[in-house]
């Protein structure tokens, strides 16, 4: 769960993605899905890649990215 400071701000957040958590570098309301471009509210962010430092709106978007880079 994100703290009050991390949820504050408007517009797009800047986030560092870790193995089981994330760190908000610049507060904002959302991040953009790396595949679809959809806005993902920070409180709803569940899928991301640590290696590529990318957020995904859905599991399907994450799978699509894996297919694009040549991983099953």
SSE sequence, one letter per element: HEEEEEEH
β-strand amount: 25-35%
From the spread of the alpha carbons, the general shape counts as globular
Oligomer: single chain
Count of DSSP strands: 6
Numbering strands along the chain, what is their spatial order in the largest sheet? 1-2
Q: What is the helix tally?
A: 2
Largest sheet: 2 strands, antiparallel
- What's the end-to-end separation, in Å? 31 Å
Q: Give the averaged pLDDT, no decimals.
A: 90
Task: Work out the radius of gyration.
Answer: 12 Å
| Low-confidence regions | none
Q: What structural category do the secondary elements indicate?
A: alpha+beta
Query: Percent range for helical residues?
Result: 10-25%
Please outline what is shown here.
With 72 residues, this protein is of the alpha+beta class. The protein has helices spanning 4-7, 59-68, and strands spanning 14-17, 22-26, 30-32, 39-41, 47-49, 54-56.
Which helices and strands occur, and which strands form pairs?
Elements: H1 4-7, E1 14-17, E2 22-26, E3 30-32, E4 39-41, E5 47-49, E6 54-56, H2 59-68
Antiparallel strand pairs: 1-2, 3-4, 5-6
Describe the structure.
- The chain is of the alpha+beta class.
- It has helices spanning about 5, 60-70; strands spanning about 15, 20-25, 30, 40, 45-50, 55.
- The strands form three sheets. The protein has a two-stranded antiparallel ribbon. Strands 3-4 form a two-stranded antiparallel ribbon. Strands 5-6 form a two-stranded antiparallel ribbon.
- The protein starts with a helix and ends with a helix.
């Amino acid at each position: 769960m994100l703290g009050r400071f991390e949820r504050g701000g408007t517009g797009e957040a800047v986030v560092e993605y870790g193995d089981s958590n994330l760190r908000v570098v610049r507060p904002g309301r959302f991040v953009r899905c790396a595949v679809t471009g959809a806005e993902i509210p920070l409180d709803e962010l569940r899928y991301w890649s640590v290696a590529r430092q990318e957020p995904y709106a859905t599991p399907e978007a994450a799978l699509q990215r894996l297919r694009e880079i040549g991983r099953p």
